[in-house]
Amino acid sequence: MSKILNLYAGIGGNRRLWGNSSCHNITAVEHDPNIAKIYQDNFPEDEVIIDDAHDYLLNYFNEFDFIWSSPPCQTHSSFRQNICVRYHGTNAVYPDMKLYQEIIFLQYNFKGKYVVENVKPYYLPLISPDTILQRHFFWNNFIIHKKDFKSDLIRTSQIKDLEKMHGYDLSGYKLKNKRQVLRNCVSPELGKYILEEAKL
């Protein structure tokens, strides 16, 4: 049975179709306790750790066969090209370089299979992605074949649409920004496809 580390796990969009504990032993790391609670409620057999995913990776990477990392994307997002009202008039910020730290770290230190996911950035990426699927860039050390996925209309979808798209009902949870939490999810179909491509 393969041991999987799911970093920056959120509510588990990418993990949704990975199967139960008879398929994999999954550890999820999420820093927000409220979001981690939703993940745990949906995947009670997974080990859920409330911690900084970046630090956890450094300390425990050798304990796993497969690592999925989805570092925060907001500072890299093409939304920052003033195509989104949300960013109009906001202060400029440094891109979060944890993304590239983790890519380089895994490339040179991890013996298993890994994938680092992020959005297509507003700038030319400092390290070219190995795979581009849907609206995502992936840096990976195994072959992920090109496949067409229907557009998820993530920029215009509202909470109910996103809940249906990802298979969640967040009506019983109090969160600051449910729409953002749902928008942060990788689609379950895409998450399943990539895990299948890893051939664990």
Structure in words:
The chain is an alpha/beta fold. 34% of the residues are buried. Residues 83-87 have low confidence and may be disordered. The protein has helices at 33-42, 53-60, 98-109, 159-166, 178-183, 188-198, and strands at residues 2-7, 24-30, 47-50, 66-69, 113-119, 131-133, 136-140. It is built from 6 helices and 7 strands, in the order E-E-H-E-H-E-H-E-E-E-H-H-H. Strand 6 (131-133) and strand 7 (136-140) form a beta hairpin. It has a 7-stranded mixed sheet. The chain has one domain (2-152, 187-198): Rossmann fold (3-Layer(aba) Sandwich). The protein starts with a strand and ends with a helix.
In summary, what is this structure?
The protein has six helices and seven strands; from the N terminus they run E-E-H-E-H-E-H-E-E-E-H-H-H.
Could you name the key traits of this structure?
200 residues, alpha/beta, Rossmann fold, seven-stranded mixed beta sheet, 6 helices, 28% helix
Catalogue the unreliable spans: 83-87
From the structure provided, what is the oligomeric state, counting identical versus distinct chains?
single chain
Radius of gyration based on Cα positions: 16 Å
Name the CATH superfamily classification.
Vaccinia Virus protein VP39
Q: Could you name the CATH class?
A: Alpha Beta
Strand order of the largest sheet: 3-2-1-4-5-7-6
End-to-end Cα distance: 9 Å
List the helices and strands and how they pair.
Blueprint lengths: L1 E6 L16 E7 L2 H10 L4 E4 L2 H8 L5 E4 L28 H12 L3 E7 L11 E3 L2 E5 L18 H8 L11 H6 L4 H11 L2
Parallel strand pairs: 1-2, 1-4, 2-3, 4-5
Antiparallel strand pairs: 5-7, 6-7
